[in-house]
Amino acid sequence: MARPITPLSDSKCEAAKPREKAYKLADGQGLYLFVRPNGSKVWRMKYTRPNGSENTLTFGEYGRQGISLAKAREKRRKARDLLAQGIDPAEQAKREEAQAKNATTFEAVTREWHAAQVKRGKWSAGHAERILREMEGDLFPALGKRPVEQLKTRDLLAPLLEVEARDALDMAARLRQRLCAVMRYATQTGIIDYNPAQDLSGAISTRKTVHRPALPLERLGELLERIDGYSGRTLTKYALQLTLQVFVRSSELRMARWPEFDFDRALWIIPPEREALPGVRHSTRGSKMRDEHLVPLSPQVLAILRQVHELTGKGLLVFPHDAYASKPMSENTINGALRRLGYDTKTEVCGHGFRTMACSALVESGLWSKDAVERQMSHKERNGVRAAYIHRAEHIEERRLMVNWWSNYLDESRHRAITPFEYARPSGSNVTELRRVAE
Fold first, then answer.
1. When comparing pLDDT for 222 and 288, which is higher?
2. Which of 4, 251, 275, 397 has the fewest CB atoms inside 10 Å of its own CB, making it the most exposed?
3. What residue spans define the domains of the chain?
4. Fold of 106-200
5. What is the CATH number of domain 10-99?
């Protein structure tokens, strides 16, 4: 008959002194404190594996910085529960260690970070898919299986240099930002203590910003005359006119649907995201800033839209493709038309340049507040505090006057070259009367 074992106490564990040879202090049910000659004390547990062989588990050192008697007994209880289920606790510990290691690989942490951003609604579905696809293609092959705690700045730089070598500088810049965000997430969640990606700044080449070409405003009359005489597809001519009049982004106009237009209120409401069109890439794109964008419409714009409605009003799309009514017109349509009109879209003017021209005229007129112009351009406020205050300040009434003024200025430019500043200050007018010109 086995001798009964008296359970250990904290005082007995604390008082245990080293001897010439190592010895054990048993607590029962296989758990014991192993005291070495050097004075270290380690918790161990002897047990019988499900296959019948004997084995020993090591839980860790005893002490104030180690495992207390109570924690050792809790580990014994968990081990015995596993044995009762026919599971070897040593093998289970190995599996958990491997899972923990895999949980901190760059790929695992990246996917966790990505899921967190999606859950917060920070990205559209298409943008989220593109981010993950780019990282899968250029970062995961080199970094995916490596634990983030082992990654140094030079490790993170290596795949970026490969992207840079194929002259994909914009992609390299985006991937650097993603690396910083993922490693910042790893720091914030306690996996690492320092973000090595923050030292990547300046390590890769950046492409010089190429501004979209725009005509000087004194050539507006020439541009309008050429558009009026456009001999191509009628719908393309209307698209040119509207692009200049409302100066929205290309995708916002190409993907426009008739239900977005309120003719009675003279308002175009561009949603943050549109319903997908079967077989059309990026058809869910709405306002680029991911906020509902209100576009007031001048009488001139309404007149053009009514003409367009006679051509395409029975369908969903305002500007459908020439060959497929269910698809939008090509993204190259506007620039192709400008080239047909005799313009070099790389050096003289392109469709996006219409936005530059309109913005320049509105600012140079001196009539409109900066906030109203920025809102009309659908630019995002970069100052977070300021953005919180002006987020819902649409400045809609001022912008109605603004778009009317712009359309009137275009009409005047057909007859004579006049600067926005001069047009905003007709002879004899004072500042309080100026905005009446736009009505």
1. 222
2. 4
3. 10-99, 106-200, 217-438
4. DNA polymerase; domain 1 (1.10.150)
5. 3.30.160.390
The answer to whether 257 touches 319, Cβ cutoff 8 Å, is no
Residues recorded for the chain: 439
CATH topology of domain 217-438: hpI Integrase; Chain A (1.10.443)
Q: Which residues have CB under 8 Å from 327's CB, separation 6+?
A: 277, 279, 280, 317, 320, 321
Q: Which two tokens stand for residue 260?
A: 């977005």
Catalytic entry in 249, 274, 375, 425: 249
Q: Residue 351 and residue 345: Cα distance in Å, rounded?
A: 8
Choice among 24, 306, 389, 391 that is catalytic? 389
Region 424-432: what's the mean pLDDT? 61
Is 114 marked active-site?
no
The SS3 assignment for 257 reads strand
State yes or no: is 249 an active-site residue: yes
Q: Is 77 marked active-site?
A: no
Amino acid at 253: L
Apex 102 CA angle, 100 and 108, nearest 5: 115
Q: What is the pLDDT of residues 38-65, one digit of tens each?
A: 989 999 999 999 998 999 999 989 977 7
Instruction: Report which DSSP code applies to 7.
Output: P
User: Which has more confidence, 159 or 209?
Assistant: 159
pLDDT tens by residue, 219-229: 999 999 999 99
Q: What are phi and psi of 344, to 5 degrees?
A: -85, 110
Asked about 288 being catalytic, the answer comes back as yes
**Active site includes 24?**
no
